[in-house]
Design goal:
The structure holds two protein chains of two kinds. By secondary structure, chain A is mainly α. Chain A has 17 helices and four strands. In chain A, helix 10 runs antiparallel to helix 11 (317-345). The longest helix of chain A has 35 residues, at 247-281. The model of chain A is unreliable at 1-10 (pLDDT under 50). Chain B has one domain (29-203): Four Helix Bundle (Hemerythrin (Met), subunit A) (Up-down Bundle). Chain B is built from seven helices and no strands. Chain B is elongated, with a radius of gyration of 21 Å. The chains are: A mainly alpha, B mainly alpha.
């Protein structure tokens, strides 16, 4: 695809060894986009496993009927903290902050992002936000218990440490805005010569669309959370029904951000899948422009559907119908992507390596997540399904089956590039089995339970739901075991993996034309791009 | 040794990029206040009469005086940038200084105005406010949130302008490299523009 000076294998030093400082300072003071990406990765995976542990504790609680193992109030704190960590500290910033940081500059042929110091500052905002949330668990009158949505008026009335937890999330939002701002500017300003918009890899397109949503939607949650804090500290009354405030307006403001945020979560993962599918099918992507523009379409339409979280809240019928209509429309660009990935497999020579297995799992689980979304997007059925386990099952299919699996696929795909070492492929493939089986037992079980009427966020359940809960819990334990196996494989590879080489998968985008791990500043000479990406067979392409 | 020497490339300065980043940041500021404007419109539609009464009680004189102050300070910051483009460092520093003084004057006025309201018992959970109808409680809740958040932005502006002034003094900002100054100017204009919306919505609502 381009003319590149290949790295001289003897004289080259990867970014992990290069740089002036040593030890921890070489990380926490680095403005290298690759190191910052890895800083995010380390912080996020730590938080992710903390939240997985809380998830497992919740499933243990649902194994027992009477008496409960954990007090109801403890369970409330569990689902709140699990949600806050998973959503705001892993799923939402995850794929964009880790892989966006590491790979967007390399994929567009740049030496770094547009604002490297701002990039490091974003990570500090992220870290501080996470620490403030964790601090809120152990100070004040107990950990927040209002759920990750912090709905008023309960979040105003509950005695627990809401203001601090909310402030932590506010700081995380700041981090997200600065990252988005950085990526938009990077893509506009730092593309290599010849890298025009239609020669950009699709992961870059996806991250670019995400970055716009981060910039445009996050400030709205910022002000909403500030108002909740002001309400708690001073009692300004704008969300307090006792003073004429309207809790519904809180829900509107919250979801004006938090629904687009769903697309902040899923788009970069979709972008990563779009990189993985052609590499392992050894053929060009089907429908490049359709995939690129559907990212923008998702970002735009996704900003107009927030009301579908509020169908039972007493909004006007007209609003309900419009929001339902847009909800159905937003399925179109998502489906375009799914069809394009599937079509890209046609007549490819498919190699089922572990990144590809996880990528296909993404397509499968995300499709279930998307289709269940359409079911609850219908107004009449929504009344039945609202606030049940169905909803919990649905968004875990999207968030975990989608973004989570996409994140794992991307990590397996790019791990050899990031660290220069190869993990044990067989173990990664074996770990896939418990993850896939456990996942469907857990969240598939939740869909069934919810359809039967099991309400979400209850610390206990009626006897008729017990079998379902046991199946889901066992699935949860299997899933957690699979995750431990997968990440143990990666941690071992970090220290003992054999050298990966420049291009272990036969990828054709720019990152595979730098050494593994890439050197500081990525390229000895900025490459010139002469053709579109994903050309696996240059002869045939002519 | 390395084919990629770490410092082979001089730190490049991309003014276009810096300006793009600044504009994106200004978008986020507008959306931050946008949430409050949204609440304002929803509540004003619900309580039109109470918003009318609330607006009558605010001190329009201080409000208008502050508008004049901010508008003039926008002018001085613009003059500071033009002066820097023409290489007149001294005038730049004087104009930035005047801008900072104006910003501080704005905050002093705001303090006087807030204290006046608070003495009357008009503040969140204040004794006088609690006796007023719901719509007025919301009006004053929004009044304190909006002017408070704006005041914080003015304070942020004072800090940013002071740092910029120091950069000019130490010749880190020069007539060929004044991007930082321009970006601070953009931010200051935004603070001004937001106030231009707050004035009619709150003080002239009556």
């Amino acid at each position: 695809m381009s003319t590149l000076a290949q790295g001289d294998p003897i004289s080259y030093r990867g970014f992990l060894e290069a740089g002036g400082r040593r030890g921890i300072l070489s990380w926490i003071l680095s403005t290298d986009h690759k190191r910052i990406g890895i800083l995010y990765l380390a912080t996020m995976l730590t938080l992710f496993f903390a939240a997985v542990t809380i998830g497992v504790l919740m499933r243990i609680e649902q194994l027992t009927l009477n008496p409960p193992l954990f007090a109801p109030q403890t369970y409330n704190a569990f689902f709140t903290v699990h949600g806050v960590i998973m959503i705001f500290m892993f799923v939402l910033p995850g794929a964009s902050a880790v892989f966006g940081n590491f790979f967007v500059p390399i994929m567009i042929g740049a030496r770094d992002v547009a604002f490297p110091r701002l990039n490091l500052l974003s990570w500090y905002f992220f870290l501080t936000g996470a620490l403030v949330v964790i601090l809120s668990l152990f100070t004040g009158n107990g950990p927040p218990d209002a759920g990750w949505t912090f709905y008023v008026p309960f979040s105003l009335r509950t005695g627990t440490n809401i203001p601090m937890g909310v402030f932590g999330v506010f700081l995380l939002g700041f981090s997200s805005i600065l990252t988005g701002l950085n990526f938009v500017t990077t893509v506009h300003r730092l593309r290599a010569p010849g890298m025009n918009w239609h020669r950009m890899p699709l992961f870059v397109w996806a991250t670019y669309a995400t970055a716009w949503v981060q910039v445009l939607a996050t400030p709205v949650i910022g002000i909403t959370l500030l108002l909740v804090i002001a309400e708690r500290l001073f009692g300004i009354g704008v969300f307090d029904p006792a003073k004429g405030g309207d809790p519904l307006l809180y829900q509107h403001l919250f979801w004006i951000y938090s629904h687009p945020a769903v697309y902040i979560m899923i788009l970069p993962a979709m972008g990563a899948i779009t990189e993985i599918v052609p590499t392992f099918a050894h053929r060009t992507i089907f429908g490049y422009r359709a995939i690129a523009y559907s990212s923008i379409g998702i970002a735009a339409l996704g900003s107009l559907v927030w009301g579908h979280h509020m169908f039972t809240s007493g909004m006007a019928d007209t609003a309900n119908i419009v929001f339902s209509l847009f909800t159905f429309l937003v399925a179109v660009p998502s489906a375009i992507k799914v069809f394009n990935w599937t079509a890209s497999l046609y007549k490819g020579s498919i190699e089922l390596k572990s990144p590809m297995i996880f990528a296909l799992t993404f397509v499968f689980l995300f499709s279930i997540g998307g289709l269940t979304g359409l079911i609850q997007g219908a107004l009449n059925i929504n009344v039945h399904l609202h606030d049940t386990y169905w909803i919990v099952g649905h968004f875990h299919y999207v968030m975990f089956g989608g973004t989570g699996m996409g994140f794992f696929a991307a990590l397996l795909y790019w791990f050899p590039k990031m660290f220069g070492r190869m993990y044990n492929e067989r173990v990664a493939t074996i770990a896939w089995f418990p993850i896939f089986v456990g996942f469907n037992m857990l969240y598939g079980g939740m869909l069934v339970l919810g359809y039967m009427g099991m309400p979400r966020r209850y610390y206990t359940h009626l006897p008729q739901f017990h079998t379902g809960h046991v199946i889901a819990s066992v699935g949860g334990f299997i899933l957690a075991a699979g995750l431990v196996l997968l990440f143990a494989d990666l941690v071992v590879a970090l220290f003992k993996g054999k050298k990966a080489g420049q291009n272990p998968w036969g990828g054709v985008t720019l990152e595979w034309q730098t050494p593994s791990p890439p050197p500081l500043e990525n390229f000895a000479e900025i490459p010139t791009i002469t053709d579109r990406p994903y050309i696996f067979n240059p002869e045939a392409a002519k | 040794m390395s084919t990629v020497p770490a410092c082979a490339h001089p730190a490049h300065k991309d003014y276009e990029g810096a300006k793009l980043g600044m504009w994106l940041f200004l978008f986020t500021e507008i959306l931050l206040f946008g949430g409050l404007f949204l609440l304002y419109s929803a509540y004003r539609a619900r309580y039109p009469l109470d918003f009318h009464t609330g607006g009558q009680h605010l001190d329009t004189f201080i409000g208008v005086a502050n508008t004049v102050i901010l508008l003039t300070s926008s002018l001085t910051v613009a003059v500071a940038i033009s002066a820097m483009q023409k290489g007149n460092r001294k005038l730049t520093m004087v104009c930035l200084g005047i801008t900072i003084v104006f910003a501080l004057a704005f905050l002093v006025n705001k303090y006087v105005e807030w204290m006046g309201e608070i003495r009357r018992g008009i503040y969140p959970n204040g004794p006088a406010l609690l006796t007023l109808p719901d719509g007025e409680k919301i009006f004053y809740g929004l009044y304190y949130s909006m002017t408070g958040l704006h005041g914080l932005h003015v304070l942020g502006g004072v800090i940013a302008l002071s740092i910029t002034l120091d950069f000019v003094r130490r010749e880190k900002i020069t007539s060929t490299d004044f991007n930082k100054l321009e970006n601070v100017g953009l931010y200051w204009h935004l603070v001004d523009v937001i106030w231009i919306f707050l004035l009619p919505l709150l003080y002239l609502a009556a």
